[in-house]
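Reviewer 2 asked us to include a model.

Predict the structure of this chain.
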Amino acid sequence: MKKLLPNSLVGQLLLMVAFMLLIAQAVNMLLLYRGTQNQNMIEASAGAVARVGNFIGRREVIGADPRRGFRWRGSRPIISRNTVIGDNVERLSELEERAAIAFDNMGFNLRSVTAAKVEILPPILQNSVVGLRRGRPSDKTMGRQKNRQIDGYILLSVQASNGNWISIASVVRDRRPRIVGTLVFQTLVLYLILLIPLILLGRYIEKPLRNLTEGARNFKPGDGIMVPESGPPDTRQLIAAFNDMQGRVGSMMDEKDVMLGAIGHDLRTPLSALRVRIESVDDDGERERMIAGIEDMDRTLDDILSLARLGRSGEKSEATDVSALIETVADEFSDMGDQVSFSRQNRLTANIRATLIRRALRNLVGNAVKYGNSAEISLDSSNNLLKIHVDDDGPGIPEDQISSMFEPFARAEKSRNRATGGSGLGLTLARAIARDQGGDIVLENREEGGLRATLSLTMQ
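Predicted model (structure tokens):
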């Protein structure tokens, strides 16, 4: 069901308006249909009331036999001792009240007035029906009756002052086909009148919103690209606020870079001086340990500064042979005596920042070598997505700790011993680099043992 719904705000608004308009027209059609039915019955009952009133009036003028003194035309009501409307028939109280008022206005004193609608005409009233053509109807009459089919009969039965019942039936004609066609045409006209302006208004609103969404998605601090202000006043204010926010974020990032540069300079200067002094230490073992500690501090500082400056790199994305890049990283580790393997495949090109991706890959391979003693790199691509897998033969990571491995300074080895692990920023930095390129890094334990780290990148 969700797949059938439009994704855009304007599309959902148009769908909602169309749906509500359809409901309103359905209610209108129902009310109009019921009103038409009532009108049809009122029209039918009016003919029956007129015929009965005429019949009673003539009887009172010429005596008991209405056929003497004039020629009766049309269906003549019947006279009976009992009403033709049985107890099992639903009475029409509204029509009864209307008929009673009409007879009072005519000056007739009647004991009772009853009315009902039936689907099948009683046999006793077969020749007392108002609205049925006698003889051969004309073509015009046939066409009219074809469009207005019989929808039942109104039975009207009144009790005169002498106790006799005077009864007659009247045909109810159905007008629904004409009403349905009119309402369908009316609905189409309303859709055109309402939806066409809404579509134009939606496009007027949708374009600046789409530009704003694209600007937010491609936002890079300090790039200086502003979203053009267009659309209604509210949308213009929203875009202006976004542009102001983008400028403030860029200014804060510039201040942060200046501060980080100062911190890096102030920290590296004493570390360099300390290393020079360490060279004068006579004990070779002690001197090597001190130098290793300083280098470790320098790498940690470099990781922190790189992580903080990520997204502000001046390096531009360019088409890069990913297989060649992986092979270069694998050779670097192999030259240092580590067990790293990679079988180069066909040329796979992606538009990436090669220096940053190389650093992320080094961190993944370094972890595999450090914790799993070896690294096996593989590469595959599908659906415009390129995946670099780094497998090791280590102990893996408990499932409940995998997500926390990407947190800064988190390590699977809890001792914080530099000999068994790094600073805990390698995976954090690697995932930040991958996400900055529109990709990600996923860790998962292999069924055959060891850990698999997957670096995914979008091929452009």
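The CA atoms of residues 91 and 116 lie 5 Å apart. The longest strand covers residues 150-159. We have added this to the supplementary material.
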